[in-house]
Amino acid sequence: MYTNFIMKKMLVYVGKEVWDLVKFLAPIILVVFIVRTYIAQPFIVDGESMSPNFHSGHYLIIDEISYRFNDPDRGDVIVLRYPLQPSRFFLKRVIGVPGDQVTIENGMVTITNAEHPEGMVIEEPYHNQITLPTGTYSNVILSPDEYYVMGDNRGGSHDSRAWGILPRKDIKGRALLRLFPFKQMDVTPASVDDFK
Fold it and tell me: For the chain, give me the number of helices (H) and strands (E)?
């Protein structure tokens, strides 16, 4: 009888400790879930399509909330869901935004839109290669919610030149932080402003 009493006391004590642990961990798990699902996510670069600015193994934090309130801008470095295989994610740079006509000719990218009806060759200080068409999408007009993206390594990037227009719904977020390698730790890494 005394043993049963001790066992009940131990069970009550263990139950209280477990409940205290659950009360402590539940809010932490909830916050981590919300942050990872709706605000920011880690992303590890795989491949050299964005070199010389990003290389395999670079560890990034992707801002997933900004584009809920603002549209991507030309020059933004984004993570996208590959439209032809949605389980894969790519890191690319926004070149064309809705309303643009993107033309690749003579090694340059020209944007024609309401602001530049005669066309404007865009300055791209983040890479040092000529831009050649690599598929059938070298002259496109972007409708609302359509974007044109390319890698900074123009000779080694599988991008909109080959597979076409990027729907807005496939943009996951923008590169907010580079955490690794430590020597290249940066906020909004390789943004257009970094090259001005």
Answer: 2, 12
Residue 116 and residue 137: Cα distance in Å, rounded?
A: 21
Answer whether 149's CB lies under 8 Å from 92's CB: yes
The pLDDT tens digits for 108-120 are 999 999 999 999 9
- Distance (Å) of CA 196 to CA 124, 125, 193: 10, 8, 5
How do residues 44-60 score in pLDDT, each as one tens digit? 999 999 999 999 999 99
Task: Find the DSSP H helices in 123-168.
Answer: 160-163
Q: Which residues pair with 97 in a beta bridge?
A: none
Closest CA to 102 of 74, 130, 138: 138
Q: Which CATH class is domain 45-195?
A: mainly beta
Q: Count of residues for the chain?
A: 196
Beta strands 186-187 and 171-180 are: antiparallel
The first and second tokens of residue 119, run together, are: 């066309």
C-beta of residue 90 within 8 angstroms of C-beta of residue 82: yes
CA–CA gap between residue 137 and residue 104 (Å, rounded): 9
